[in-house]
Design brief:
about 250 residues, mainly alpha, AhpD-like, two-stranded antiparallel sheet, 2 strands, about 0% strand
């Protein structure tokens, strides 16, 4: 008996005028399956709700007002345009701010979320889900395609497993020790693991999910130091030019 895969008909680009590589289709289906599963600290329903809020934030009136202000903290109010899902207000605020005004987040704001009862672990997991959704949705926007419907959440409980060798004080959130994380993600243990990878390492499953998506959308990790390699008809210099420009436009700081 063949098992039914509810995601096998998702991300169908056969009718699009631009060809889409099969590895991207596979990566996006894997990302949607990852979102739907119970996570480390959030249930499948909570994870899908995070994905919904990531999309909803773009049309949130409070977020637009904050974005237009000289400082987002000059705008009073805490009620975002959000759904009636299972998420506490602190996670809703996290996702809306990360999605719409990430360059102006502060550690004081992050600490206020912890004071409201949000844990660092839940913060990191929600961030991991949001990053996946934003990455996939921006691909669709770039091609002028409608967004893929979000997956149905899977039943089950979070594992609540915290990794060993967690280091405090190097960033707002705790992170894994660089050498231990290197072994987990298949990088050499000698040089320090980049912070862009360590940022989500308090919840290792989110590191793996982000890495698999990045391998398809950008470059596989084993090609990072092979500067002569190209991809999809463009060389490495052109890839980095595009990546650098996108980072600048998105005000990426890492």
């Amino acid at each position: 008996m063949t098992s039914f895969d509810p995601l096998e008909d998702t991300f169908d680009y056969t009718a699009t005028p631009d060809p889409v590589r099969p590895d991207l289709v596979s990566a996006y289906r894997g990302a949607w399956a990852h979102i739907a599963q119970p996570g480390t600290w959030l249930t499948g329903a909570e994870r899908v709700a995070v994905a919904e809020e990531t999309r909803r934030a773009r049309d949130c009136a409070l977020c637009r007002e904050r974005k237009a202000a000289l400082s987002p903290f000059a705008v009073s109010g805490t009620d975002h345009d959000c759904g009636d899902g299972p998420l506490p207000k602190a996670i809703v605020d996290e996702i809306h701010r990360v999605t719409t005004d990430a360059a102006r987040l502060t550690e004081t704001w992050y600490q206020s979320l912890l004071a409201d009862g949000l844990t660092a672990e839940a913060y990191v997991e929600a961030l991991g889900v949001a990053v996946v959704v934003i990455s996939v949705d921006r691909f669709h926007h770039a091609l002028g395609l409608p967004l893929e419907p979000l997956p149905e959440p899977r039943a089950g409980e979070p594992t609540c497993e915290r990794p060993e060798s967690v280091v405090d004080g190097e960033a707002w959130v705790p992170m894994q020790d660089s050498r231990r994380l290197a072994r987990q993600v298949g990088l050499p243990a000698g040089p320090p693991v980049p912070y862009v990878l360590r940022a989500l390492s308090l919840v290792p499953s989110e590191v793996h999910a982000w890495s698999e998506l990045s391998d398809a959308q950008y470059l596989p990790r084993d090609q990072m130091t092979r500067f002569g390699d190209g991809r999809a008809g463009i060389d490495r210099a052109q890839i980095e030019l595009v990546a650098g420009r996108v980072s600048a436009l998105n005000e990426c700081f890492y």
